[in-house]
Write a structure and sequence with these properties.
With 246 residues, this protein is an alpha/beta fold. It has one domain: NAD(P)-binding Rossmann-like Domain (Rossmann fold, 3-Layer(aba) Sandwich), CATH 3.40.50.720. It is built from eight helices and seven strands. The protein has a seven-stranded parallel β-sheet, sandwiched between helices. The termini are far apart.
């Protein structure tokens, strides 16, 4: 897909989402950023993109709501004039002991990490069909892509991200004839969490074959590849510095 003049909707506008938005804007895309509580960061990113001559909007939505998933897609189309690419990046990631993982905690994670990706995709598909082609990029996780859990305390998150891979493959099959390609990215050690100590961050580097954290630019490059490709679909690409092979 030639992305120049096309429009992208990105759910989850923090950290990696900011880098992806700015990279796609530099390639000629107009951008809609969806945020829940991080209004200031999304607004700054949108303003930065507009200053470079591209259209950009920041849209607030609670993606646990079925109606909000549909509404934010329609708002993006109304504000940008079209929708060619959807990037489902919004995610809930937190550690919780199994004993404390009740139905409420389960739903809080799966509603954002899995259900919202489906609902936003479902709302976006008619607009992509109207445009004659489209791209959907979902976000999984390197642990989920490895096929087995490696850490305790992340049961709903692991299940959701494994299911995102299944969603990606099933949608790819359903939509290939429409020219809509669907893929997933499974990030590994990209950016150290703010609460992580220097010692913990060093241990992650030592466990990663390339010996470092990847940086947000590596994810942005992978997203651009999947959007610009006209033949890759149903794939999950691990951007993890080889972490999964160790």
């Amino acid at each position: 897909m030639n992305v120049d003049g096309k429009a992208v909707l990105i759910t989850g506008g923090k950290r990696i989402g900011v880098a992806v938005a700015e990279d796609l804007a530099s390639r000629g895309m107009d951008v809609a950023l969806v945020y829940n509580r991080s209004m200031a960061e999304a607004a700054r990113t949108a303003e930065s993109i507009r200053s470079r001559g591209r259209n950009a909007v920041a849209l607030q939505a609670d993606l646990t709501s079925i109606s909000e998933c549909s509404r934010v897609v329609e708002d993006a189309v109304r504000r940008l004039g079209r929708l060619d690419v959807l990037i489902n990046m919004a995610s809930v990631y937190r550690s919780l002991p199994l004993a404390d993982t009740d139905a409420t905690a389960w739903d809080a994670t799966l509603d954002v990490d899995l259900r919202a990706a489906f609902l936003c995709s479902r709302a976006a598909i008619p607009h992509m069909r109207h445009a004659g082609a489209g791209r959907i990029v979902n976000f999984a996780d390197w642990v989920a892509a490895s096929g087995r859990p490696r850490y305790t305390g992340f049961l709903p998150y692991f299940v959701a991200k494994r299911a995102v891979i299944g969603l990606t493959e099933a949608l790819a099959l359903e939509l290939a004839a429409d020219g809509i390609l669907v893929n997933a990215i499974a990030p590994g050690p990209i950016v150290a969490p703010e609460e992580m100590s220097a010692e913990e961050a060093m241990k992650v580097e030592e466990a990663t074959p390339v010996g470092r954290w990847g940086g947000v630019g590596e994810v942005a490059k992978a997203v651009a590849f999947l959007i610009e490709s006209d033949f890759v679909t149903g794939e999950t690409i691990r951007v993890d510095g080889g972490r999964h092979v160790r």
